[in-house]
Amino acid sequence: xxxxxxxxxxxxxxxxxxxxxxxxxxxxxxxxxxxxxxxxxxxxxxxxxxxxxxxxxxxxxxxxxxxxxxxxxxxxxxxxxxxxxxxxxxxxxxxxxxxxxxxxxxxxxxxxxxxxxxxxxxxxxxxxxxxxxxxxxxxxxxxxxxxxxxxxxxxxxxxxxxxxxxxxxxxxxxxxxxxxxxxxxxxxxxxxxxxxxxxxxxxxxxxxxxxxxxxxxxxxxxxxxxxxxxxxxxxxxxxxxxxxxxxxxxxxxxxxxxxxxxxxxxxxxxxxxxxxxxxx
Length: 280
Description:
By secondary structure, the chain is mostly helical. 72% of the residues lie in helices and 1% in strands. It folds into two domains: 1-199, no CATH class; 200-280, no CATH class.
């Protein structure tokens, strides 16, 4: 939403595709994580490319509704295809990656051994997420990212000067789907199971809430929003069951008082402090 101004209501489809891809490859076919994880991103990106071919032909609310329609198709397949996806029961007991090689490394490096498998997977996820954020940062700072910002500011003018807007939007949509598939692959293992809810439209709404909460206009805004949403969920649900009511109130307050979200508010505060302490 910050770089191409495409609002997708069906992003959970690629999250779910990545999760099921990793789960099927690792649990049913015995494929190692080092191959199953990138396969999740490749397959999710490929399907995003196919779906996006139709979605980018329309704009604004029609684009959002078409992405939602494709996502519901994916959810229905996950929910009904019992032989492959497990249907309504999902696919429990997704195995962790093998960390047998850690024992050999622990003999040479201190503080490496002695952890549980779940903790090793946490460290692995931390590294992979960091690499994905680094890759996304490089992408949005490249000429490709600048072109996306040009399309966001004025798609008609970009098309007038010879830019194939639909092609650039399609590539951006496929990239977003690929990274969502990688996220789904990690989450399926972390959750120790993959279920149809991963591809349901409510999961897409979580992504939109994270973006609105953190700030649409900043690169790290969605990351801040994801952290804030998880913390709010854990804290508020420990006191009351009316957590969605409180979250909705917080979002309304942010949209009126801080339209840029938490990230935008922090950036504005930093600029104000910089102006106050800057030498005359």
